[in-house]
């Protein structure tokens, strides 16, 4: 198993560039299934394990994918099967995003149930409610969800989401592009990744209005064609580097970061005493002399992102005073706390609330990344800790960060990555992470 080793105590300074957004590129690749003509060319597709998995899902459907130099070319004229196997879907929850496009394009899809990852049960009832309202019959059995369109094609519908789910909004929006008539999604998620997906779909010939607001209106069209698109920068990766600057008392310019996408993170950092300056190419983040703690509550966009919660908690541990973190999106997203405590963190969890005592002298320890952002948060805490920290479970970090150790080292961190013994040539390819919790579709 790979490990990341960090010796804490170095101030970071310099420039670090963010990659294309993982959470934008995954639905965009899934949406390419809808292109009956021509080729899609997706630029700034980050070389992440999750991107490799979704590419494999499309390939397993018979779609042609070529991925070089952060550009993916997709030709989806021919689709051989409407079934996405357990072997691939178990590796990444977002694989379920192929359900909407397959249903719209072929009228039939059979997808393995996605697992809930360690951060919560993560049901998909809102995705299914949307497909049903658009005229699909849904059956569950043998670990698969099978959806079939009644009649010739999906039809438009008015769908109110009980929770403003990012994935459900994306899946329903993709399905609706080829439905007969108009679909309206109410209480839609407003994340920048939804807007990026809608822009791509519109470039393919779809007619979508209102993406980025709570009401999205999709007029169905007969067919879509491939399009050229550049993925937006990753706001969570950018936010992670912002905290790397703040937690080390450093000064980083984060190239590509978009201030508007990071408004709640910038605002909380400024409240703590961090200086954030924005220009058209990125954000400069300078730590103040003494940081003071704040309270943070995760909320759907434009609220504070749950994907930044653990990284922010790392910063709160070294700030002055006590701060409270409230996690409202996922019911089990405090697993990093136990690992922080191993590093001398003083944190008390009660249900969805964590009370974080500040002024902690963090100490290096052997810790384990339990999920993607928990892993990033451990790296951040390790940068501020006394002594060496050894982080295992690095495959989680590889799902969402391009060369995290290398990029941090380039701005002054004492960080290295230790790889396992090479795999003998005769072996099968290394396995990607599987989810910790049994599948659920409640
Ligand atoms: C690939 C991707 O983009 N992942 C992001 C996406 O995940 P994902 O799209 O899975 O997250 P959702 O927005 O769907 O989940 C938000 C909440 O809604 C609940 N829910 C969701 C769907 C459903 O049918 N029923 C239901 O109850 C979930 O359990 C969760 O409590 O948004 C999350 C919330 O910002 C982020 O943390 C993830 O990084
Ligand atoms: C939870 C995340 O991703 P996913 O939805 O792919 O598990 C994340 O990016 O922090």
Automatic annotation (TrEMBL):
Q: In which pathway does it act?
A: Cell wall biogenesis; peptidoglycan biosynthesis
Catalytic residue list: 117 (proton donor)
User: Record-annotated residues binding UDP-N-acetyl-alpha-D-glucosamine?
Assistant: 93, 122-126, 307, 329
SUPFAM superfamilies found in the cross-reference section: EPT/RTPC-like
The question of whether RNA-binding is a record keyword is answered with no
- Cite the GO molecular-function annotations of the record: UDP-N-acetylglucosamine 1-carboxyvinyltransferase activity
Q: Which domain of life is it from?
A: Bacteria
**Catalytic activity entry:** phosphoenolpyruvate + UDP-N-acetyl-alpha-D-glucosamine = UDP-N-acetyl-3-O-(1-carboxyvinyl)-alpha-D-glucosamine + phosphate
Broadest EC class assigned to this enzyme: transferase
Segments forming a coiled coil? none
EC assignment: 2.5.1.7
Segments crossing the lipid bilayer: none
Residues found modified as 2-(S-cysteinyl)pyruvic acid O-phosphothioketal: 117
Q: Is NADP set as a keyword in this record?
A: no
Q: Which InterPro entries does this entry report, sorted A to Z?
A: Enolpyruvate_Tfrase_dom (IPR001986), Enolpyruvate_Tfrase_sf (IPR036968), MurA_subfamily (IPR050068), RNA3'P_cycl/enolpyr_Trfase_a/b (IPR013792), UDP_GlcNAc_COvinyl_MurA (IPR005750)
Subcellular location as annotated: Cytoplasm
Q: Which residues form the Enolpyruvate transferase domain?
A: 6-408
Q: Which Pfam families match?
A: EPSP_synthase
| Keyword terms, alphabetized | Cell cycle, Cell division, Cell shape, Cell wall biogenesis/degradation, Cytoplasm, Peptidoglycan synthesis, Pyruvate, Transferase
Kindly list the positions annotated as binding phosphoenolpyruvate. Answer: 22-23
Membership in a protein family: Belongs to the EPSP synthase family. MurA subfamily.
- Write down the HAMAP family for this protein, in alphabetical order: MurA
Q: What does this protein do?
A: Cell wall formation. Adds enolpyruvyl to UDP-N-acetylglucosamine.
Return the protein name.
UDP-N-acetylglucosamine 1-carboxyvinyltransferase
Underlying gene: murA
């Amino acid at each position: 198993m790979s490990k990341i080793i960090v010796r804490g105590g170095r101030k970071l300074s310099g420039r670090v560039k963010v990659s294309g957004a993982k959470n934008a590129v995954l639905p965009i690749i899934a949406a390419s299934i809808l292109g009956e003509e021509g080729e899609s060319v997706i630029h700034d597709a980050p070389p992440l394990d999750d991107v490799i998995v979704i590419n494999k899902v499309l390939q397993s459907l018979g779609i042609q994918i070529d991925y070089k130099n952060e550009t993916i070319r997709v030709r989806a004229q021919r689709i051989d099967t409407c079934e996405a196997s357990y072997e691939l879907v178990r590796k990444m929850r977002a694989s379920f995003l192929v359900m909407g496009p397959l249903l719209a394009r072929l009228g039939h899809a059979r997808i393995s149930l996605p697992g809930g990852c360690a951060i919560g049960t993560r049901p998909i009832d809102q995705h299914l409610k949307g497909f049903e309202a658009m005229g699909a019959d849904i059956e569950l059995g043998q670990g698969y969800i099978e959806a079939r369109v009644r009649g010739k094609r999906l039809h438009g519908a008015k769908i109110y989401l009980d929770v403003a789910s990012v994935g459900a909004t994306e899946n329903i929006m993709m399905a609706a592009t080829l439905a007969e008539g108009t679909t309206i999604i109410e209480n839609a998620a407003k994340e920048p990744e939804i807007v990026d997906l809608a822009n791509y779909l519109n470039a393919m010939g779809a007619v979508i209005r209102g993406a980025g607001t709570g009401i999205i209106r999709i007029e169905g069209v007969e067919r879509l064609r491939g399009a050229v698109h550049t993925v937006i920068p990753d706001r969570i990766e950018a936010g992670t580097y912002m905290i790397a600057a703040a937690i080390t008392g450093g000064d980083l310019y984060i190239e590509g970061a978009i201030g508007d996408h990071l408004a709640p993170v910038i605002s909380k950092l400024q409240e703590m005493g961090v200086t954030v300056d924005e220009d058209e190419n990125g954000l400069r983040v300078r730590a103040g002399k003494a940081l003071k703690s704040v309270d943070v509550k995760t909320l759907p966009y434009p609220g504070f992102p749950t994907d930044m919660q653990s990284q922010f908690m790392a910063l709160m541990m070294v700030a002055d005073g006590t701060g409270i973190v409230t996690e409202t999106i996922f019911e089990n997203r405090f697993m990093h706390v136990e690992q922080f405590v191993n590093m001398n963190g003083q944190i008390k969890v009660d249900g969805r609330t964590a009370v974080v005592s500040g002024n902690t002298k963090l100490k290096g320890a052997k810790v384990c990344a339990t999920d993607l952002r928990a892993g990033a948060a451990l790296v951040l805490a390790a940068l501020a800790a006394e002594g060496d920290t050894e982080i295992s479970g690095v495959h989680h970090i590889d799902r969402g960060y391009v060369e995290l150790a290398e990029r941090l080292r380039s701005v002054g961190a004492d960080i290295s990555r230790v790889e396992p013994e090479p795999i003998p040539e005769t072996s099968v390819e290394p396995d990607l992470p599987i989810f910790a919790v049994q599948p659920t579709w409640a």
